[in-house]
Input
Amino acid sequence: MVLKINHKSSEPLHVQVEKLLRGLINNPEYNGNGKFLPKEVDLAKRLGISRNTVRHATNKLVYEGLLVRKKGIGTKVADNPVSTKLDSWHSFTQEMNQKGIPFINYDIKVEWVDVESFVADFFSVPLGKKILMMERLRGIGKGPIVYFVSYFHPRVGLTGQEDFSKPLYKMLEEEHSTVVSISKEEISAKIADDFLAKKLSIKKGAPVLKRKRFVFDPGGRPVEYNVGYYNAEAFTYSIEIQSKD
Output
C-alpha cells in the first residue's frame, strides 16, 4: 500500500492520515497477523508532517477500538475490532429534560489540574499541561445516581467561570463556538470502592456502571474526555441500533 497524502488538498492532514490508517487496518499485511503499524515518528517523516498530526489520527482510531497501542512497543490492529455508532446523544441535562425527569445538581466542582497520561494521549497534549477538570454529582430527589468527571481540551477556551449547571454542550456551542458531533463510548461494570460508595450513597461493593465518553467536534478534534459512574440499581442504559440491511 502506498503511504502518501496530498499537502495541497483542503482536507485536513489529520483526516487524510486517519483515512490512510483505516486503509492499513483493512490491509491483510496488518489485519489479523499481529504485525505492528509503522512507528508514528517514521510515518510522520515519510509523510512530511508533524508527529502530533499522526498521533491525533491514531488516537481517534485507538478510541474507536480499531487500533491497540502497546506502550514502548508500537501500535497494531485490534483483534476482531468492533465499533458501534449511536445515532443520537445528548448531555445528561438534555436527556433528563427530554424525559421530563427533574434532577438535582448535588455538587459541581471545577478546577485546573495537571493532565494525566490517559487524557494527554487522547488530547495529544504534553504531560504536565494544565487542563480544566469538572466533577459533577447529579441525581433525583431520592439521592445521587451519577458521578461525572470531565476533562476539556485547552483549545475550547473554557475559563472555569462558566455556569456549568447549564446543558454542557449547548453552553460550549453558544459561549465558546465549539460544536460537538461525535461521541465514542465504552461501557463496563465495576464495584464501588470507598470513594464511589460515599459519592453515590451506596454500599461498598455495590454494582456501578462505568461509562467513558470521548467527544469530538465535526472535524474529528477531541473536545471532552468524560467518565460517568452510575448507581446500577437506579439507572438503566439502553441502546437502540437500527439494521442497515
